[in-house]
Amino acid sequence: MSMQEIIATIENGKRIDGTAFLQLEQEANLHQLGFLAHAIRMRLHPEPVVTYVIDRNINYTDICISACKFCAFFKAPEQGDGQVLSQETLTQKIAETQALGGTQILLQGGLHPDMPLAFYEDMLRFIKKTGIHIHGFSPPEVVHFSRLSGLTIKEVLQRLIAAGLDSIPGGGAEILSNRVRQELAPNKCNADQWIEVMETAHHLGLRTTATMMFGHIETVEERLEHLQRVRNLQDRTGGFTAFIPWPFQPDHTPLAASRKIEKTTAVSYLRMLALSRIYLDNIPNIQASWVTQGPKIAQLSLFFGANDFGSTMIEENVVAATGVRFRLSEEEIRRLVLDAGFQPQQRLMDYTPVQ
User: Fold this and answer.
1) Which of 178, 278, 309, 331 is the most exposed place for a label (fewest CB within 10 A)?
2) H, E, C per residue of the chain
3) What is the mean pLDDT of residues 190-204?
């Protein structure tokens, strides 16, 4: 297909294939991608509304056996300086979140080698007493629980749901290519297992998000593989509420120490954001990544396919461990959205508006 034919296909609301994606990636300029992505965004969401959620990242432990080369946050068990949050600390963090109008917590942690499944069930039951929505346990954690307990993915998820789990974040996806995952995080679940967790969760009635961390050792073709896996699963289940692409932050990571990796530029980020909106025609929402890009680029993202500003991130530790420390209050998010010409709207995880 010529570029004109690809653009016409997109403008007519039809799906593009992988070949067209690669051609767009190689030949389309930034303005073309932005125009196409924004048109899709406005077709899916005609009202000039940009949503956001008030929540907090709670990392219940930094002790982890995965030793991912891109992570600056984890502590190996033998280091002896890792921690597991107490119930008292959890109570304090959740109370602070609710006092700020927070509706959910994003509960994730390292792959701890010693904690049984019952520990996570008890934590869920304890947190659930507060009444807050628990958006927790990314697929690598679920696979880790399965390995330690000897239970199937489905059995683990059923027990977590019974204990209070409400939805699952799309973390731990990185790039859904087994070549990339084997090099970066061989102790972590592979791409097929990540998809298995999400598909099982969807069939059990959980809604989830999907992410992509790009800009490290992956090829453009492997980015496409990632998007294709996500789009195929969404075709089967419809369980993803949103997609969040964000660029790798190299500072203080083992990966950056072992090879030269440049930070993803704002232009490259906006291109990938737009390409994601164009290709993932069956996922309703695309989130901007102000946590990695800062407020101004996140504001620009609203014209490159994003219709959601993500979370207020009352607390964030993993990206902060790389030295990137953007912070935005709810008031600042609302101002940025208004200044871009949109109406801010607080939402829940499933995108139900908060009145």
Assistant:
1) 331
2) CCHHHHHHHHHCCCCCCHHHHHHHHHHCCHHHHHHHHHHHHHHHCCCCEEEEECEEEEECECECCCCCCCCCCCECHHHCCCCECCHHHHHHHHHHHHHCCCCEEEEECCCCCCCCHHHHHHHHHHHHCCCCEEEECCHHHHHHHHHHHCCCHHHHHHHHHHHCCCEECCCCCCCCCHHHHHHHCCCCCCHHHHHHHHHHHHHCCCEEEEEEEECCCCCHHHHHHHHHHHHHHHHHHCCEEEEEEEECCCCCCHHHHHCCCCCCCHHHHHHHHHHHHHHCCCCCEEECCHHHHCHHHHHHHCCCCCCEEEECCCCCCCCHHHCCCCCCCHHHHHHHHHHCCCEEEEECCCCCECC
3) 98
Q: What is the pTM of this model?
A: 0.92
Question: Residue 273: pLDDT above 70?
Answer: yes
Q: Considering only residues 322 and 168, tell me which one the structure prediction assigns the higher pLDDT.
A: 168
For residue range 69-121, what is the model confidence (pLDDT) as tens digits? 666 556 776 776 788 899 999 999 999 999 989 999 999 998 888 899 999 99
Average pLDDT over residues 328-334: 90
Question: Computed over its alpha carbons, how large is the radius of gyration of the chain?
Answer: 19
Other beta carbons within 10 angstroms of residue 121's beta carbon come to: 17
